[in-house]
Specification:
Layout (H helix, E strand, L loop, with lengths): L2 H8 L9 H14 L8 E2 L1 H8 L3 H13 L3 E4 L3 E4 L4 H25 L2 H19 L3 H19 L2 H22 L2 H19 L3 H25 L4
Antiparallel strand pairs: 1-3, 2-3
Helix pairs in contact: 1-2, 2-4, 5-7, 5-8, 5-10, 6-7, 6-9, 7-8, 8-10, 9-10
Pfam families: FCD, GntR
Keywords: DNA-binding, Transcription, Transcription regulation
GO molecular function: DNA binding; DNA-binding transcription factor activity
Length: 231
């Protein structure tokens, strides 16, 4: 089987109670954002249809949605070609994250109980232990848990919904950054600063540290994207 089709199939969850066209679109979207279909690759609708035994109609729908998101483009006489994530996309997503993460932390710190702060502290300690044990994949999950905990405690359901739209992008960027041992260590130290700022209910510190934390991550990711000649 074509390795690109295999990558999409791996992300194709047919157990979901959603229309096939939506499931297929989400599988393509996740596969492209995670970089499993490189920029410049052509997506052959007929080959996907024949191999996966799926009508071309939901595949066309998925491609239309991805064109609208600018993750793929229609090239005359060639077909659908993957664009993937650009450096411009990275800057845009991190600008959004700065605003949303700051707002979530500021809201959460006023609503969190002592028990909540103890739980957040335990998450950071767990992340440090996983880092020292070299369990990179588990550190990646721990960082997601840290962010999701703060969003959950902000009790802003619409904010959480907005962030869920960016989640696949965030996992992709986080995965790039956290693979670096130095970046992991720095990010853990920044988590402690965010935690202390929240516990002290210091709005200014929250904004400064959150922005600095995300700027460091963005700078690392831009260097990696440039190294891989992503523009």
């Amino acid at each position: 089987m074509n390795p690109i089709i295999m990558s999409v199939k791996k992300n194709l969850d047919l157990t979901q109670n959603k229309p096939l066209k939506t499931i297929l679109y989400e599988a393509f979207r996740k596969t492209i954002i995670l970089g499993d279909i490189p920029a410049g690759e052509r997506i052959n609708e007929k080959e996907f249809s024949d191999t996966l035994n799926i009508s071309r109609t939901p595949i066309r729908y998925a491609m239309q949605q991805l064109v609208a998101e600018k993750l793929v483009e229609h090239v005359p006489r060639i077909g659908i070609v993957v664009k993937g994530i650009s450096i411009k996309d990275a800057y845009e997503i991190y600008d959004i994250r700065k605003a949303l993460d700051t707002l979530a932390a500021e809201k959460a710190m006023h609503l969190m109980t002592e028990k909540d702060f103890n739980e957040l502290e335990s998450l950071i300690i767990k992340g440090e232990n996983l880092h020292h044990e070299g369990k990179v994949d588990e550190v990646l999950q721990n960082f997601s848990d840290f962010n999701q905990f703060i969003y959950r405690k902000s009790q802003m359901l619409r904010l959480k919904s907005i962030v869920s739209e960016l989640e696949t992008y965030l996992v992709y960027f986080r995965d790039i950054a956290i693979r670096s041992s130095l970046r992991r260590e720095k990010a853990l130290a920044e988590h402690w600063l965010i935690y202390r700022g929240m516990k002290n209910k210091d709005k200014l510190q929250i904004e400064l540290i959150t922005h600095e934390h995300l700027d460091h991550s963005l700078q690392f990711i831009i260097k990696e994207m440039e190294r891989h000649k992503i523009v």
